Structure formats: structure tokens, C-alpha cells
Amino acid sequence: MFGMNELCSVCQKEIQPNEEVWVRMKYPSKRGVTEIKAFLHQEAQFVCMDCFEKTKK
User: Fold this and answer.
1) How far, in Å, are 2, 4, 18, 28, 30 from residue 51 at the CA level?
2) Taking CA atoms, which of 17, 40, 41, 50 is between 20 and 30 Å from 1?
3) Alpha helix ranges (H) inside 1-57
């Protein structure tokens, strides 16, 4: 859990702390309290803003 480095799913750039990103994930089927970073690490795909802006056009 410590040292989890997320990568952009498009360009493979490492996501930096406090960087704005877009996250693609399925809505959770269960309700409860969870550690958000671990949940996102397992369930989400991250897209950096540079790649998002390129694909948006």
C-alpha cells in the first residue's frame, strides 16, 4: 500500500501528488467505508489532464 504509484492509462506517465486527473471506474455495488487510495488503485483507470485534453477534441 505504501509507495503506490499510479500511471496514466494512455501515456504511462506517473501521476504526481495533487495532480488533477480523470478517473474511469465502475460504480461500487456495495456500500461501506474504505481507504480511497487503495480502492482507486484496484478499481480505477487514471488519465492525466494532458491525455484527456487530447482525446476530448
Assistant:
1) 26, 21, 17, 25, 31
2) 50
3) 36-43, 49-56
C-beta neighbour count of 2 within 10 angstroms = 3
Task: Please tell me the total number of residues recorded for the chain in this structure.
Answer: 57
Tell me if 16 sits within 8 A of 48, measured CB to CB.
no
Q: Classify burial at 10, counting beta carbons within 10 Å of its beta carbon; exposed 0-12, middle 13-18, buried 19 or more.
A: middle
> Nearest-CA neighbor of 44 among 30, 28, 55?
28
pLDDT digits (tens, 9 = 90+) for 17-29: 999 999 998 888 8
